[in-house]
Hints:
This protein is α/β, with parallel strands linked by helices and 324 residues long.
Amino acid sequence: MGKALYRKYRSQSLDEIVGQEHITTTLKNALKQGRISHAYLFTGPRGVGKTSIARILAFEVNNLPYDEQGTHLDIIEIDAASNRRIDEIRDLRDKVHIAPTSAQYKVYIIDEVHMLTKEAFNALLKTLEEPPEHVIFILATTEAHKLPETIISRTQRFSFKPVPNSKVVAHLREIANKEKIDISDEALLLIAQHGEGSFRDSISLLDQVRGAHQNIDESVVRQAIGVPPNEHIERICTAISSQNATEAMQELQEMYDAGYQPSQIAQSMGAYVRQDILASNQTDAASLNLVRQLLEVPASSYPGAYLELAVLEASTSVLPVPTK
């Protein structure tokens, strides 16, 4: 079995990182000048490179060649979701005083650090206040707002951003060329849009569709990821704008019958309405409210019912006629 593409093309140095140059440039300059912090905090959405850069930084701060597996005795990765109790952090606090085995620094990477309990945070804080000189902490989280301010204030914080679609597409094209994958630019753009700024998710999706067809176009990708065709989305949005609730619900039912999931329909509708707002350069309360409701569909316990309610409510509001 071949290696997954996202692992095969995982960056192995700060120079190879794409889309987070505002972070990698600062880190590279700090390394050159020997300005090493005892604690870093990486925040941002999933799949944008927080853990990858944490691993690379752990190796580069020690002047070590990057191990493809990302492993070293003095580089310890901890998943806070499964090691969140105070006992685990107390054990870590005891072990940090042990000198590195062979590296200059012992680096602790704590992923999803927001999952720690209050007691565990308090124990970690004591270590961050007076860390041994040979220890570096790299904390990563998707939910920085859940961290105590006392923890944040003792770290150098770096905010990761979703990668622009243009950079994701360019990177996917490089991979596709190397792997001899025949795929259209439109299909790559759809993959990037579906990945929502995440290289990892986008590359995984490219890996998923590459075996589906010899010549991969937009329709192949749509079928693979369950994204409704544009004509379906345009028809339901036009029905909503025309205040035709019956037609809108019929179109929604047709998409259900075709096997499309509520979350995917909502995502496509939201993107369509947002693009229409940008194209017309006009905003109105009804459109904004619809987008807001559509964004909430995937997180709902009953996404189908929530989507239907959003469509019905929008069909009785005054929406501008789509410009597309």
